[in-house]
Design a protein that fits this description.
The protein has 18 helices and twelve strands. About 3% of the residues have low confidence. It is α/β, with parallel strands linked by helices. It folds into three domains: 125 residues, Rossmann fold (3-Layer(aba) Sandwich), CATH 3.40.50; 164 residues, P-loop containing nucleotide triphosphate hydrolases (Rossmann fold); 127 residues, Helicase, Ruva Protein, domain 3, CATH 1.10.8.
């Protein structure tokens, strides 16, 4: 790759004549050199954001090159350090390279060899810093993409971020609509595999008549070759989504894949090893389904588990989540939404949301389109109505939401609405609302 100039170089050498000659040689190559006669002074000039290359002698008084290298590793393990050594120090330099040194040159070395090593290391450093920048930007997008300031939201952000950075397999548990697929993608995007494939296998694929071909592929020896989904995920993340209802035969084959991390395509004479990180989504409510006597896939993984809370467990975030979904659907549909009114706010705060985030997102989309269920009077372009009728419709919707939230139990409704019981019953009679209909 091309490396922008000037390349920054920190040069450490206690031999004054060699330090001066090397500095001049590198400057002639267009490099920007900071020259130091001792490692302690050089250490003070380097930070974690240093974009260049460090070149250091090994044998020096005071702090020697190996201690200097160890200090730099503590500052940033990815800092590129080139060590220069006498012939007797080659074994030490080799050990340092095992610890992460970029290169080493034996004295006397040519300026051509040094320039070549510096340019290669500078190119790698640019990639490291760019990857960090992209990762930090992704992290900022990730924080924005999971709105909420509740303890549940903070814990979810922290857990997913920590798990994503490792290579361990993951089981994501949650009810319908809690965002398991979204969380799986975040685990991939925040991981070291972010630039590699993310492949989803769900129950719909496994129900297909060509499920074996779709999953495992076909070897060229069997005719027209085809790469299966499992092999396409090689080097990246394989997301197994809601596979509780798969057949026993396919369940056994998937267990074998999890155990061996290998596949046998149709017509192949030997298995193919795969480098996979597996993320498995499961809904605990489906545990009572068929196949109760077989080994669950998640038990075979030995993976870390992430439990996604239901929306009712993070009510403090609901308004922020609703506004977030409204913004997303406005951008998706190219339709500006009207102002969020009291009716919508009350509805989203008191509704049970059995469909969790998926249901809330659907309601936000309907709201953007002017199709929400809180009355056609809320949609733009409808006929004008009197203030009295608007207030009456709003009052009725508030009562309906309160009854729905209480499941028709009138013991809690007066307190929730901070209104006397007799007044509540009078209004229910006026609007023909019966608590039993909400049980």
């Amino acid at each position: 790759m091309s490396v922008p100039l000037p390349i920054e170089v920190v040069l450490v050498e206690d031999d004054g004549a060699l330090l001066e000659a090397t500095t001049q040689a590198l400057a002639l190559e267009g490099m920007q050199v900071q020259a130091f006669g001792d490692a302690a002074a050089a250490l003070r000039s380097v930070s974690r954001e240093f974009a260049g290359v460090i070149v250091s002698d090994v044998r020096m008084p005071g702090m020697d090159g190996l201690e200097f290298f160890a200090r730099l590793r503590g500052l940033d393990p990815d800092l590129p350090v080139i060590l220069t050594t006498a012939h007797g120090d080659v074994s030490m330099a080799v050990e340092a390279m095992k610890e992460g040194a970029a290169d080493f040159l034996t004295k006397p070395y040519s300026s051509v060899a040094l320039v070549r090593a510096i340019r290669a290391s500078a190119g790698n450093r640019i990639l490291v810093l760019e990857n960090r920048r992209l990762r930090d930007e992704l992290g900022r997008r990730w924080e924005r993409s999971i709105p909420g300031s509740s303890d549940a939201a903070e814990k979810l952000r922290s857990v997913i971020d920590a798990v994503a950075r490792s290579e361990i397999d993951v089981v994501i548990e949650g009810a319908v609509g809690t965002g398991k697929s979204y969380a799986a993608r975040l685990v991939h995007d925040l991981s070291p595999r972010a630039g590699r494939p993310f492949v989803t296998v769900d129950g719909g694929i496994l129900a297909h008549e060509d499920a074996e071909l779709l999953l495992f592929g076909r070897d060229p020896a069997a005719g027209l070759s085809r790469t299966g989904l499992l092999e396409r995920a090689n080097g990246g993340t394989l997301f197994l989504d809601e596979l509780a209802l798969v057949s026993d035969q396919m369940h056994s084959r998937l267990l074998a894949v999890l155990d061996s991390r290998s596949i046998l395509p149709i017509g192949a004479d030997r298995p193919r090893r795969l480098n996979l990180r597996i993320v498995l989504a499961r809904n605990p409510a489906l545990d009572s389904g068929p196949g109760g006597g077989r080994v669950p896939l998640e038990q075979r993984l030995g993976a870390v588990r992430i439990a996604l809370p239901a929306l009712t467990e993070r009510r403090a975030d609901i308004v922020e989540l609703f506004r977030h979904f409204v913004r997303l659907h406005q951008d998706e549909l190219g339709t500006p939404a009207r102002a969020i009114g009291e009716a919508e706010l009350h509805h989203i705060q008191t509704h049970d949301w059995p469909g969790n985030l998926r249901e809330l997102s659907g309601f936000a989309r309907a709201f953007v389109l002017g199709l929400s269920d809180l009355g056609p009077q809320l949609a733009p372009g409808t006929a004008q109505r009197s203030l009295q009728q608007i207030v009456a419709d709003f009052e009725r919707s508030v009562l309906e939401d309160a009854l729905r939230c209480a499941r028709g139990d009138m013991t809690s409704v007066p307190g929730a609405l901070q209104t006397p019981r007799k007044t509540i019953y009078d209004k229910l009679a006026r609007y023909g609302l019966k608590p039993a209909a909400f049980r």
